[in-house]
Structures
1.
Amino acid sequence: MRHKRIMLDVLKGAAHFPPPLWMMRQAGRYLPEYRETRKRAGSFLDLCYNPDLAVEVTLQPIERFGFDASILFSDILVVPHALGRDVRFEEGRGPLLTPVNAAEISQLNSETFHVNLSPVYETVRRLRAKLPDETTLIGFCGAPWTVATYMIAGHGTPDQAPARLFAYREPVAFQQLLKVLADHSAAYLIRQIEAGADVVQIFDSWSGVLDDASFDLFCVAPVAEIVRQVKAVHPDVPIIGFPKGAGAHYQSYRQKTGVTGLGIDWTVPLAAAKALQAGGAVQGNLDPLRLVAGGKALSDGVDAILKTLGDGPLIFNLGHGITPETPVAHVEAMVKQVRGATR
Ligand code: CP3
């Protein structure tokens, strides 16, 4: 039998071999059973706010693959939605929001924030009750910078130019936005922990587009503030930071934010990842396209990670979310290879 919630041991700095395993976006469109539930849900946000269906899709990859961790099914954009911004998801176009301007930032409405998010807390409560004891439950939020990029542009962009320009032109309003997001994200994570999340992860998907000074101000500082607020209430709950694309900033990001675990994208060299393990657990970093390709590309990628990082604190994962075109058989092959690995 596997150890109880081995991912928690790894986040304390212990090495486990084979390592605990889960995948970012593990409940999603590559699974036929997800696509089935999704059809019944109505809109994507309806699915996020429906505890019956959100629990169902969260559990699907656990039932199929027996991952060591389960991540709450929701989206990072429920936070601006709960603050009163208009958020929609359109098939094939991703998220669409009404862009926020400087004047509107002071009008973000906190009053019904937790009431709006109460279905998410209910989903977390039901998940902790339903999950196997040995499965770690991960709650999450988006980092303020990444959430702000969508709020400002109103949609995804390749380089976050609208948010970068806004930040340079309206530094006071932009700092105010980061502060509102940091405070509400911290409160949101605290409620998820109180509902039963064992670990929380902060997704900073767009941290790779910033210069040195902006990285410190827009990524590091607000995440450090979230970590401070969460740790003040729940000092023992591990926090994983995932500053995707942070490159040369990874080391200082860990030190300055105080996150327990570090999510690394697939461009982080394994030798650099090994050095990062000296400061605590790392999570990653298989290129999701190796999982799409399968075969030797997949087995070589898995092998390299296990060989280089397997004797330190490692949570095996992808370097970003799984893509919808991934064959389920390739996920099965990856799970088999990781679980069957010997040193
Ligand atoms: O990891 C998980 O399985 C938990 C669920 C989860 C979703 N989104 C579900 C989702 C998590 C952790 C997220 C985080 C998220 N959402 C991020 C950070 C991580 C990352 O991917 O960089 C970001 C930037 C978003 C915003 C977002 N949501 C985008 C850009 C999109 C559209 C792109 C796409 O893949 O369609 C979404 C939609 C979304 N969020 C889907 C899922 C399963 C697909 C929508 C659908 O099924 O109809």
2.
Amino acid sequence: MIVVMTPDATQDDLAGVQARLAEAGYGAHLSQGEKRTIIGVIGAGDDEKQTFADQVESLPGVERVIFVLKPYKLVSQESRSDRSVVEVGEARFGGPNLVVCAGPCSVESHEQILECARAVKAAGAQVLRGGAFKPRTSPYDFQGLGETGLDMLAAARDETGLPIVTEARAVKDVELVAEKADVIQIGARNMQNYDLLQAAGESGAPVLLKRGLSATIDEWLKAAEYIAATGNLKIILCERGIRTFETTTRNTLDIAAVPVAQKLTHLPIVVDPSHAGGRRDLVLPLSMAGIAAGADGLIIEVHPQPDRALSDGAQSLTPDAFSELMIQVRTVSEVVGKPLPVMAGKGVEGASWEP
Ligand code: PEP
Ligand code: MN
């Protein structure tokens, strides 16, 4: 922690700050420049309290207090030398290979999720997505099938072997979702639901944490820190577009968030081109952009009949379009040195590419 004095701070002000630091058990290293004095606080590690910093900041003659280390210490890149890898079934988020998750926005029926699971697996996806507890902006829209939807997902996993990622919308859903799914998704609208973050963390299951609609990267990483603080570091970040003044797209994909987050944290990060663009025609270019920016994976909405989807049909790909996309994803992923695993989709009838 560093205390920056104002240019007109007096010797009394300086003595006051030193006395306050000493009272709290900290040493002080003074650096007296021509215009101002800076105090390096000794003994205050990266866990010094924000409240204490705020108190020091309000002492006479203090301009501001700067934290040297990141406020999200467990997920911070500084806290470990390597990048973390989150294992989900055979997929390795943050490993040498790109991971593609795909499936419908909502689980709608046994047949729908099964058809989807078979198709996305055949095209090379390694994880099946599908919402059972849907966080809809309007209370009158389809809210998901709840536990019945989770059972349908589990049946699709049993048949295809694909692990599943699905959202827990409330603390009360967490236990059930952790029991039936492989990854708990925290939706954008819930990124700052701290009770939910803690409950998801405490479940011990891997957590896919979407970035909030208006969240800064700093707030997103602090949300991840809530999960990490429970002792669960199996966290996958997901950039899904943020709200801007632009109206032609549903959200604006913050592509810079991928390399920025990778500098700040050791956690893997995936890109969701479906919610970012909100339009089927943008899913391919945004996927390409995500991979080129260094994403560890993608999460894409696919529906057997998008024109009949109960949610997010406009941004859902047909199974055929998804197969086509995966061919291009494979090429680009190889170019950037993070290829799809050669085994993905291998041996599955109907696979539209050669491993
Ligand atoms: C979803 O994945 O279907 C979803 C609702 O995503 P988000 O929370 O990013 O809007
Ligand atoms: Mn959706």
